[in-house]
Design goal:
It contains 31 helices and eleven strands. The strands form three sheets. A five-stranded antiparallel beta sheet has the order 3-2-11-8-9. Strands 1-4-5-10 form a four-stranded antiparallel beta sheet, with no helix packed on it. It is an alpha+beta fold.
């Protein structure tokens, strides 16, 4: 059937995606006929980018940016290719390749451009293909990147002599994966942290100025703000070093300046603090007062974190943490020894523990845990602190209590039908486990998790009972993810897997039963569609539905009535002149017949050819309007497509198709000739207009184009008499313009003195024209010298004319030389020569314009011409004597 396998590197189709996905029908021929030809037609528009993820991203932008979600808009334009290529002798693959992508709309969030984070990375679609062994259907759901292609699916072939024929391929969804959404939300939080840090910086700096801390002698206040400025400076520097924000090119809040300012304040406070300690060295203050004041400030900023907006709370809470860095511990130890006799650090440690205990009693476990962790960190970094051994036990119980509280809330939300809250607290539990728990801690994870997973599987059982299979699958998947995250209670695995199998089977059976119901009602079209849905669902979830094969049996049953219906529908469409729709119906019937393994149906083949013939003739006749509208490119495309189909289906000798082609060719030729005649006349009009405007090059260009049109279209019988007259009229102008241009080129290459003779000769030839040309007037040598205003060139020309005994032209150059600033001394010899030449002119016998001219007629009475005037007078006297 199909010729020897050849490597295919064929672009199936390219499209542009702009929040609307285009679905394509792909019709191909066998590889033996023409493996590199694919005809592509757009069938319909499908759904937008996955709206749930997009809306979540918009909601994050609107919430932080102070706008409404409804006010946001975004356009993503994506151009991509799908390619079919050979992976090996018996495997082909469909490859998804990004050609270009652009993001437009409201992508600015609080002064930062988020265009890069609106790049889709998820493609979902469906493809149908045929090999020697049947027709197959596959779905694909793949992540991709702009940087490199991704293989959507591999097609396993049973022999190396077959090539897959793509029947239909569709991209049903281009969107954002959970990873893309997470990356986007991370960037949003990073921008929020940026502005929160600027706000925190401003708050701390204003307080320093308000309470004159930078001019204070109070050790407690100085130490508190020494610590605060260190933390704020650290936050700013971390953000400045984060390449994701690109703050070197865009720093809308001037974080770099603010961080530098707070860092300099930190150094000032450290200096003041050390100076104050030295002033009253060995004067011991009350350590408890110092410690309480310090912890009170920590508590103040923790409370502030609850009052500021959610986006800024993290930074303010950070300012309220005790962070025992090296510089902090070093300075606290120094203060402790010199002013508090070693009691201050111990007092801070003790107050932090008491604060943690108090918050535990109030049920505020998260804040209590932070106080105890801070106390523990302080004791680990300052050796003089006497450690309370109960702190580790308290921390362990708090961690267990917090984890238990998250899971308990999640368990309760399962029974209250709040899947959004269930997801939220499952994520909180997973995040808490990653951040606070490790393998060494003796927490009975399984006893904490077991009630939650039991509640989730019980809820799943109820959902399945009531037919809510999609919700059951979603809940099961959450349970599996949670178990994997904690690596616990593996005995629930088989239970969850069985529930997933039951739920998937329920969805599959619903689709299959719907298909059977329509079959029983003789609605074979809808029956076939639901059977296809069931088949695709089974393929997508084959791990759970491997033993479910009812849909294949139904599809076999459907083929005969579907074939009959399709043939009847095609004949009806053909009777109403809808030949393309009819052909689609016949082709589908033919595909089903092949899949059924039936012998060739001569009547169906005849119907297909009739539909194709009518399509060709109809398409050729439809070109009349395009030709009339002068849309010749579109008309030619229709012609080419019709010719291709004529060759493909062997209609070369069909008299009706021949007549349709001949009729179209005549109309197309007539229109092309009309266009050529109109363009020819327009060009002649432009020639005259350009001539009136003195634009010789435009004249030449339009004449050349007109001559080309007349020579290339002899069959259009274009009248060229006016063209010949105009060409003859401007022949001399073109010739002189080219010669003068050549002269100028040589002048710039070899110098003025080398071409002055040629310039004079060309001027003389131009002056001999019987009728001076009104389009082109060249720049004469004298005009050139005047324009250049260069005395050296004028003197060169003067010498040339004097040598050629052209005294009048030489005197004109001499005057120009004087006007341009030349010195009389340079011209004395030339003046002598010119005086003699002009004197002889005046003495020539006969009637001419120079006889009886005096010296004043040649040069003015100016001392500059003294040599000329004396020699001229002398020559006349000698002649008179």
């Amino acid at each position: 059937m199909i010729a020897a396998r050849r490597v295919l590197e064929t672009i199936l189709f390219r499209t542009t995606f702009c929040f609307t996905i285009l679905v394509f029908n792909i019709f191909t021929k066998s590889a033996s006929a023409d493996p590199d030809r694919f005809a592509v037609t757009i069938r319909s528009n499908s759904q937008v980018v996955n709206p749930a993820t997009r809306d979540a991203m918009f909601f994050a932008m609107a919430t932080g940016g102070g706008s409404k979600t409804s006010e946001l808009n975004l356009q993503i334009e994506l151009q991509y290719d799908l390619k079919l290529f050979a992976q090996s002798d018996n495997t082909s693959a469909i490859q998804f390749i990004i050609q270009s992508i652009s993001v437009n709309g409201q992508t600015n969030y609080r002064g930062f451009d988020l265009s890069d984070f609106f790049t889709p990375d998820l493609v979902l679609g469906h493809i149908e293909f045929e090999t020697d062994h049947g027709v197959y259907s596959r779905n694909f759901n793949e992540k991709f990147s702009v940087a490199e292609p991704v293989n959507l699916l591999s097609i396993d072939l049973q022999t190396n002599n077959e090539a897959p024929l793509i029947r239909k391929a569709s991209i049903e969804l281009l969107g954002f994966s959970d990873d893309a959404k997470k990356s986007f939300l991370t960037q949003i939080r990073l921008v929020d942290r940026y502005w929160a840090t600027i706000s925190l910086n401003d708050t701390v700096y204003r307080n320093i100025l308000r309470y004159s801390i930078d001019d204070s002698d109070d050790i407690s206040s100085l130490f508190v703000y020494f610590d605060l400025t260190a933390k704020v400076s650290r936050l700013g520097n971390e953000l400045l070093a984060d390449s994701r924000l690109r703050l070197r090119s865009n720093d809308p809040g001037k974080l770099a300046d603010e961080t530098d300012k707070i860092s300099r304040m930190h150094l000032r406070l450290e200096t003041l603090l050390k100076q104050q300690i030295l002033k009253e060295k060995n004067h011991y203050d009350n350590a408890d007062v110092f410690a309480r004041k310090y912890v009170a400030y920590l508590e103040r900023y923790r409370l502030l974190s609850e009052l500021v907006s959610y986006s800024g709370s993290e930074q303010f809470y950070y300012a309220g943490r005790l962070l025992p860095t090296a510089s902090f511990c070093q300075l606290l130890t120094y203060i402790d020894k010199t002013r508090f006799n070693g009691a201050a650090a111990q007092s801070i440690y003790r107050i932090m523990i008491r604060k943690g205990d108090s918050l535990t009693h109030e049920g505020n476990l998260a804040h209590a845990l932070d106080y105890l962790n801070d106390a523990k960190d302080l004791s680990e970094n300052i050796a003089s602190i006497e450690v309370d051994r109960s702190v580790d036990l308290k921390i362990g119980k708090l961690k267990e209590g917090l984890l238990h509280s998250f899971i308990l809330i999640a368990t309760r939300t399962v029974s209250s039908d709040r899947p959004d809250l269930t997801q939220l607290y499952l994520e909180k539990a997973i995040d808490f486990k990653k951040e606070h728990l490790n393998l060494e801690q003796s927490i009975n994870i399984e006893s904490i998790i077991d009630p939650l997973i039991r509640a989730m599987t019980d809820k799943t059982k109820t959902l399945i009972y009531y037919g809510q299979n999609n919700e059951a699958i979603e809940l099961n998947n959450k349970a599996l993810h949670f178990i994997n995250s904690f690596n616990a209670i593996p005995h629930y695995w088989p239970i969850i897997r069985q529930q997933l199998k039951t739920a998937h089977t329920g969805i599959y059976q619903d689709l299959l039963n719907t298909a059977r119901d329509y079959y029983d009602k003789h609605n074979y079209q809808l029956s076939g569609e639901y059977a296809e849905y069931a088949y695709r669902y089974r393929i997508d979830h084959i791990d759970y539905l491997e033993d479910q094969r009812g849909v294949e049996q139904l599809q076999v049953q459907l083929r005969k009535p579907q074939i009959s219906n399709l043939i009847g529908s095609g004949m009806n469409e053909m009777a109403h002149g809808n030949h393309s729709t009819a052909l689609n119906a016949f082709d589908k019937a033919n595909e089903l017949r092949k899949a059924e393994g039936s012998a060739l149906d001569a009547s169906l083949d005849s119907l297909r050819k009739t539909a194709i013939k009518n399509m060709i003739i109809s398409s050729l006749r439809s070109v009349d309007l395009k030709i009339w509208a002068n849309e010749l490119e579109e008309a030619s495309m229709v012609y080419d497509e019709a010719m291709e189909k004529t060759k493909e289906f062997g209609f070369h000798d069909d008299p009706d198709i021949k007549a349709a082609f001949r009729r179209m060719e005549e109309k197309l030729t007539d229109r092309i000739c009309m266009n050529n005649r109109l363009e020819f006349e327009e060009l002649l009009y432009r020639v005259k207009r350009s001539a009136n405007q003195g634009k010789l090059e435009e004249v030449r260009k339009n004449l050349d184009r007109a001559e080309k049109i007349s020579s290339l279209n002899p069959g259009c019988f274009i009248n060229t008499s006016e063209l010949m007259m105009l060409s003859d009229r401007f022949k001399d102008a073109f010739n002189f313009k080219d010669q003068y241009q050549l002269l100028y080129n040589r002048m710039f290459e070899i110098g003025f003195s080398a071409v002055v003779a040629d310039y004079d000769r060309l001027d003389s030839l131009y002056s001999l024209l019987s009728t001076p040309n009104d389009v082109y007037r060249p720049t004469s040598l004298m005009d050139f010298l005047a324009d250049q205003n260069n005395p050296s060139l004028s003197l060169t020309a003067c010498s040339y004319f004097a040598g050629k005994n052209k005294a009048i032209a030489a005197i004109q150059c001499l005057k120009m030389f004087k006007k341009q600033g030349g010195t009389e001394k340079q011209t004395r010899e030339i003046q002598l020569i010119l005086a003699r030449q002009t004197a002889r002119l005046t003495l020539l016998e006969g009637i001419h314009e120079y006889r009886f001219k005096t010296v004043d007629d040649f040069v003015e009475n100016d001392p500059w011409y003294k040599v000329f005037r004396q020699e001229f007078t002398k020559m006349r006297k000698l002649a008179g004597e």
